[in-house]
Each structure stands twice: as C-alpha cells, then as structure tokens.
Amino acid sequence: MAFETTLPGRYFYDPEIFAREQSCLFGQMWTCVGRADALPNAGDFQTAEFAGESVLIVRGRDDELRAFLNVCRHRGARLSLEPCGNTGPAIQCVYHAWSYALDGRLIGAPNIARDESLDRDNLGLVPVHLQVWEGLIWLSLADDPPPVTAQLEPALLDRFGELEKFERYGVGSLAVGKSITYEIDANWKLVVENFMECYHCAPIHPELTSLLPEFRQGTSYQGIVGQGTAFADEIDAFTLSGQGERAMLPGLLPSDARLYYGFVLWPNLFVNLLPDHVILHTLTPLGPERSRVVCDWLFTPEEIARPGFDPADTVAVFDITNRQDWDVCERTQLGMRSRAFVNGGLYVTNEQHIAGFRDLVLERLGERV
Ligand code: FES
Ligand SMILES: [Fe+2]
Prior knowledge:
Layout: E1 4-5, H1 15-26, E2 31-35, E3 44-50, E4 53-59, E5 65-69, E6 84-86, E7 91-92, E8 99-100, E9 106-108, E10 127-133, E11 136-140, H2 148-160, H3 164-167, E12 175-184, H4 188-196, H5 201-204, H6 206-211, E13 229-230, E14 259-265, E15 269-273, E16 278-287, E17 290-299, H7 301-305, H8 312-333, E18 346-347, H9 354-364
Antiparallel strand pairs: 1-18, 2-11, 3-4, 3-6, 4-5, 5-10, 7-8, 8-9, 10-11, 12-17, 13-14, 14-15, 15-16, 16-17
Helix pairs in contact: 4-8
Bound molecules: FE2/S2 (inorganic) cluster (FES) and fe (ii) ion.
Fe (ii) ion binds at residues 194, 200, 205, 321, 325.
C-alpha cells in the first residue's frame, strides 16, 4: 500500500495560505471560541480572534449570547481591546462615543441632530452567527450556515457509531476546574495532526502510555469506531499517580468506568472523555507559525464545590502530555521551511486517517483532493 503524503512544507508557514485558511476554512465552518459559562451576566463580554476578525461576544439583557464584529460602524475603531469584561448597560466606542445596545442596535451618536440623515437602523453592529453546543460557543461567518450540529454530529458518529455514548458524558453540564493556556510556535495544522495520531505516544509520552498502555502500539487516539482505550490494570484513576477515587460522571454506565476516548472535532476542538472528568483543547491559529491552545479540565459543579477539591494529580497527566506534544510540534515547525520538506513527508500506516484532515484543508482552500 502506498502511503499518503502530507501537505508540502509551505502550507505550514506561507502567510498567503494562512490568510486563505482564515477566510475559506475558519470563515466558513463553525469554530469553537470559548465557553458560555464564562459570560454569566448581562453585559459580560469576551473578544475572540476568529477567521481573521476580532469578534465581540456579549450576553444580552434577555440572557441571549450574541456575537458581533468588534468594529465601530462610524469610523471603524475597534470597540474592545480587552479579552473579557463587562460592557455596562451599552457597548460604547471610546473614539466619538457612539453607543450600541447589547443586541447590537445603534442607540447613541452624540451631537447629531435627529433630523440629520443618519440611518441609525442600518448602523448597528455587524452580527456573527453564534450557537452554543455542549456549553461551548461556536461562531460562523458563513452567510446562512446550517446548525452547528450538522457539522459536529457526523464526526461524533464517525467516532462512536452513535450519539448516545458521547451524550451520556453530559459535557454541557460540566464546569471548569482548571484551565491552562499554551502558546506554541507551530502552525495550527501541525497541532491538529499531532493530536490525531498516537504513533508518537510511545517515544514521547511515557506518563500517558503508563496509564493507557495500548497507546504504545501507536494506534490513533481516535481508535476503532465506538471503542475506548483501556486503563492499565494496576491504576485506579487517570491521574499521574494512578490513584484517586473521584465519583464517575452521573450519566455514565459501569462499562465506561475504565476507558479513555479522544477525538478531534474539526476544525479546532480536541475532546478527551474520562470516567470522572473531560478535557477540552480549543485551538486558535495566531499566525502562520504560531498557535494558542486553551486546555480546560471539566468536572461536575458538585465535585468542584466539594471542600478540598484538588485536581492537581489529574491535571498533571495532560499538562505533561500537552507540553510534550507542543515540543514536537515546534520541532516539526523548524523543518517546514527546509528544502527537504518542499514536497512534504508521509503518513505511515497508523497515521493514514490524517489524510482526511489534509483533504478537508485542501477542499476548503479550493485545491485538489
Ligand atoms: S469610530 Fe467609534 S464612535 Fe467614531
Ligand atoms: Fe501526543
């Protein structure tokens, strides 16, 4: 069998390709940009870098989350430079003090008489499609996007063969017990490709493979449809020490007790399901050779509220694993400009499925598949 080939090196550093990915791939797919529970109150906002735009996400007085391009309609000033905060009763531009309601309507433009022909109705903030799925905020810049589930459910069916197995983890009912943000000197696609394969697990992840010994075979994180990866016989919990007795997530079955499931929801969310917690990696491309990953460790709110809650032993497993992964992504980035990689490399047997991601990128860029 001939091996599939990777993208050529330039796809991992060329600013022109990066810009096209931002508009044609991220700009047309639903992309995860954060958590709905980070914005509990009216006026709470966060900004997100998404598809080459800055987007302002705000909770309205009616409790709805909305997203807008973070641009004042008057002369184009960026409305918020802050990553998060509270707008107060309105979103006000600092430049000439135009103000917008939390639903985006223009409600104030100082020193312009009512009889001057300012078309206030058409000068509201430019909306961006927003949907919440499993507690996560997803954005789309497509004109008329299908529901976010139309993008995500086929991927879940590919992984599980059914939706129920994923749904019983109740990801949307969980809360963040620990969050770590990483910045990586590597193209975002290297980070996705790395997460999709476990051929590298034996060489670089001794801690992870001691908990999940099947990964020493190099088979993919994604595994076989519907199958999880079994814990090592000698461990009690998915912690660095292998010890722990946190209660299972409430919806799970006894058969879920000692299994790990990992998978990618393209374009930018990595999901890790465990019996007593869930880990989500949200990836943001910052530039052709720089990426950010926010890693959230989720537990039930009851577990987080428990006196003495301490996730350190749990967090250590994937914090160590993440750093090992980012290290090899950065090392790979260093090779992308070499003449040795002008025509790319190859995916071996345990990595063949990554060709599906390569093809998604090419298809969205309007190139050959
Ligand atoms: S640019 Fe915002 S009010 Fe003028
Ligand atoms: Fe890894």
